[in-house]
Amino acid sequence: MACLGVFVGYFPVTTVSVSLPVIQQALDASTADLSWVSDAFVLPVAALILTAGVFGDVHGRKKVYQAGLGFCVAGAAVALSAQSIVQVWVGQALLGVGAAALLPMTLALISHVVPDPRERGKYIGLWTTSMMGSLAVGPLIAGVIVEHVAWRWIYLLPIPLSLLTMVIAAFVLEESRSHVARKLDWPGQITAAVAVVALVYGVIEGGATSFGDVRVVVASAVAVCSGAAFVVVERRSPSPMLDLTLFRSAAFTGSALVVMISFLGLIGFFFVLSLYLGMVQQLSTLEAGMRLLMVTVLPMVLGTAVGRLMRYLSPRVLITSGLVITALALFTLTNVGTDTSFGSLAWRLALLGLGLGLAFPCITATAVSSVPYQQAGMAAAGNNAFRQVGGALGPAILGALLTGKAVGTLPDHLAAAGLPGSTSGEVLRAVHADGLGAVAGLPLGEATGPALNALSQSFLDGLQLCLVVSGIVMLFGAAVAAVLLRPARTPKGGSSGTPVASGGGRAAGTGHGSPAATAVADSQ
What we know:
By secondary structure, the chain is mainly alpha-helical. The chain has helices at 2-17, 20-27, 31-59, 61-80, 85-113, 117-148, 158-172, 186-208, 214-236, 250-280, 285-309, 315-332, 342-369, 376-416, 421-434, 448-484. Residues 1-489 form the Major facilitator superfamily (MFS) profile domain.
């Protein structure tokens, strides 16, 4: 049921990402509008995932799991009937609320049923496989749908899938709650949500207009003040949404930073890659989905194997090496062009998938195993919250970089194409008003081909910058993992692998040959 839940929760991510060019044309959306399509899903996840974890601990994980599936049904139904970009945002937001409820519950279910961290790594590997499987099949399903019917029908499948999972869960899931008394932390929830939304809004609008714009400055100030307020509130709360003492664990802190950094680069990369495949290479949604499959299939295949490998190799080794491989793959993509073949693109994307497949299962397992048993649910929710904050910032930051660089170099490419000043001016006005995708709809006559070619070249300039930034971000994540995820020493005399009975002390299950399960032993 944990695997089913995470599959449903992550299904909209790549299904929608690969359909962005089609959505842009159908609803006349700008690049900033498309950023909000992605972030309308990710923001509720980032803002609500910690609260969902507390709701599950207090009111029962089965209830929250079922409620998450209900929100997925509602969100898909709203987006399925969308007639405007705003309605797509609303549907995506409801889907994000559903994912926010599902993700911490799925990991909490695993921690509840498999208390031994050494054994738990295998099941978290299966959980990761299901997550990557959802990301893998999403583009293919979206491609087939868009090829034959309207793009809105990409939202149809989550409805019966969620309803079927609800029925199964009603019969097979048992109710569980935290053994530690917890209360809802509304001040923490409100300050965290305001901070995340203000931060992402500032980045997206700053990229679309100017970072000196009054709205952007105000949003940035609100994000800083709300973030500071969240820290103060959580330190004083008798039942904090996120216990800040978790960050005393170097392994938990390291895994949180690494997952946020890596998802910033990864989700941002998916965003710009889908635009490249649609706008530059002019591929259909199905053809784009086949290429994205190269990124997700290896992590899906490797998930279980890496879960077993964590029993023998340090998470620092696996995460650091995985992120370095991912960075190298991103750097190899910087020379792609308008006519890059499927084969030339495929091996680079497969290399990217290999790096992700090594790193991601270890990051989640390290976070969950780095704290006492009673705090595993909070640690899982906290790790997922950082993952989603990075995922929200990815499209916002890379979308802003892409647009800024492409618009900045477009005049030179238009001039190099030999277009007259009046035509170039018309193209530039359309881009400034409605985004890069507006050029395709301009009635330019014989100048249409050269104008689109100039647009493609400027887009490639922006893509190259995004890939370099993503690669540097991944290398920074690898450095954080190498420094903070120190291999734990096995305690003298070994350990029984029995979970601790109360908070504090050493993490549970620190047995021989299980560095992944003992990553926090020294730091605690």
